[in-house]
Amino acid sequence: MKLTAETTLKGIAIAMGAIAALMAAIELQRALEEKRAVEPAPVVSDDPLRETLQRCRTLTPEALEADTKCQAAWDENRRRFFGTSTNDPETE
Length: 92
Known about the structure:
Blueprint: H1 5-38, H2 48-56, H3 61-66, H4 68-82
Helix pairs in contact: 2-4
């Protein structure tokens, strides 16, 4: 098989098309990942602590410092997770 200018150009065109399709697929994947990262997961539980923590996750650090309800919710969440008593200072 002899390589001619025409077959070489066809090969280059096919390769460029394949690269363009690959780049489009990568961009689509990236856009879908960003969309998933932006949308907060819906709260399925009817647990008020979970709902409060979900809201608190969206706050900035400065707003979180000023929000006493969020601070109390995070303290309660830590207490539940670690199983510590709120009256026992030795477990903290």
